[in-house]
Specification:
single chain; 218 residues; Glutaredoxin; four-stranded mixed β-sheet; 4 strands; binds glutathione
Amino acid sequence: MTMQLVSFKLCPFVQRSVITLIEKGVDFDVTYIDLAEPPDWFLAISPFGKVPVLQVGDTVLFESAVINEYLDEIHPPSLHPADPLRKAHNRAWIEFGSALIVDQYQMMIASDEDAFDTHHHAVVKKLAQFETLLGEGPYFNGASFSLVDAALAPLFLRFEVLNGWHGLDVYDGLTKVPAWHRALLGRSSTRQSVTTDFDDLLREYIREHGAYGAQLFG
Ligand SMILES: N[C@@H](CCC(=O)N[C@@H](CS)C(=O)NCC(=O)O)C(=O)O
């Protein structure tokens, strides 16, 4: 039975699950929807009206962290640390990563300079908090790729595109976070988690939604 993933091409939370599906070698089909005009069948199955949704037989799973934990359990070896305290710590930072992804989104679609500065400040602050946590790398837990890496890779994919922004340097003064970025962008699961038109779609989305960000692109 092939799992069915419902996706929106620009959703970072979907990409977390795609990375996990690829890392685990799971066969899956993808259906892309437009979140601006969500189809009725999607609204009927998605309790929050959000992607990702993963259909496994008759069961509908939602919430990227839950989907990834399920995939991790059914396809060992686990991509979590074995130690319960480390595992809980990783889960906590996955949650923190979700908040950072939302800050990044709000920064991208900021309509004016004040809003941009507020969200830019939040992004920079959270990245500095990650910098203090990271060790030798290349990944969050060291040598092995983990679910927390899958959770943050979509953030770095976006910074890869945003690097072209005039004057934007969210990594100023950081060394470990940009090294983590490079390690995750070097992984094929990260690169395969987006469609080939991702960069263009993201720029187009920002032009349509964020007046200030679009101006920075110029
Ligand atoms: N906590 C959720 C967040 C998912 C989410 O925010 N998805 C967005 C797209 S990136 C969505 O579907 N938004 C549609 C809406 O809010 O109506 C997860 O981790 O899966």
